[in-house]
Amino acid sequence: MRIVLGVAGGIAAYKAAHIIRRLRELDHSVKVVPTANALKFIGAPTLEALSGQTVTTDVFDEIDTVNHVRIGQEAELIIIAPATADLIAKIAAGRADDLLTASVLTTTAEVVVAPAMHTEMWLNPATVANIATLRSRGVHVLDPAVGRLTGPDSGPGRLPEPEEIVDFALSVKDGTAGDSAAASTDPSGDLSGRRIVISAGGTREALDPVRFLGNRSSGKQGIALAKAAHAAGAAVELVAANIDTGLLTGLPAGITMTPVESTLELQSAMHSAQVWADAIIMAAAVADYRPAEATESKMKKSGDDGLTLRLVQNPDILRGLVDERSRQTSLRHQIIVGFAAETGDVATAALDYARAKFERKGVDLLVFNDVSGDRAFGHDETMVQIISSDRGEIVVGEEFHGSKDHVSQKVIAAVSDQFTHVESTT
Fold first, then answer.
1. Which residues contact 215 (CB under 8 A, 6 or more apart)?
2. Catalytic (active site) residue 215
3. Residue 357, marked binder
């Protein structure tokens, strides 16, 4: 496929190199058309070496081939990543004062725009209006990710990862994408005014001052959910169970965080937060058992004998939250979302275990992912199905593959839809 990659003049222009490489690996032809300012961030030799084609910015370059018309006419797909606020404004206004904007104006191909800018620019009414204009004309806009920006600030405005941009753009071409892969993170906020509590990470049960029983959860999914809910306008409290501090560096300042260690600490924090929450998302991986006793000093080896541990069952936090909701009239409209990381066995499929958990827990939504063969924990990509009910019948959504950021946006959109459903039936 003949793809034109437009690159605007922002610090995220360096990611264009990864986008080109990925597209070339998939056997697509890539013509890079940067703006003049883009070349201040990434050099033309780099873009030419990776794409295998000449790079120019001016409509008067190679004028014998009428580039300013030909490139747009021959393109089968145009991707602009990053797209700055300035470039978006030009495209919305129909400007054609350089090779990139002229190519966009002449093309009949699908156009995908991946904005990248500071949060204040993304939320500015001018940018919001320009994005709405592009979408109304059929341009596919991939909303920016939430995270660390150029300086010390964080928020919506970060360029999505190259793999996500490529996946979205190619899904646009084959007709499987909507207007935006991240529509739920519209700056106006599908969850504006809502209060969301999200648990993340994995609980640890102490054996002694040094050792603990734990699990493989990294906390990536819960962090992504918190960012997506915040970007959608919600007030977010993150109850964080043993998350690597590196994952917390891009957490928006508006998200409050309560750190916990064990399952009992997580239970206490979640019940304390439940009283003010409009929705609870239990994404933490909770230990089913804990040691009956934890020693005050480090356990020592004793000859060649093995070690026998006596474990006791932990409380079912998710079921407890559902039960508390049923007891409190003030919580009757609260949405509760559970997660089911399941593996199948010779007798039962992983999805069947998830369906049984949905019925047993009494939640409104259950996000199921099959973690057989270490397919979810710690990785950036995942696959989920959202289980819900309709008139008493269990409904299993289609499989959804993508990055954990992308999956989180899907989950937050489902929560927003659930609010609409609950309020329309009461």
1. 202, 203, 285, 287, 377
2. yes
3. yes
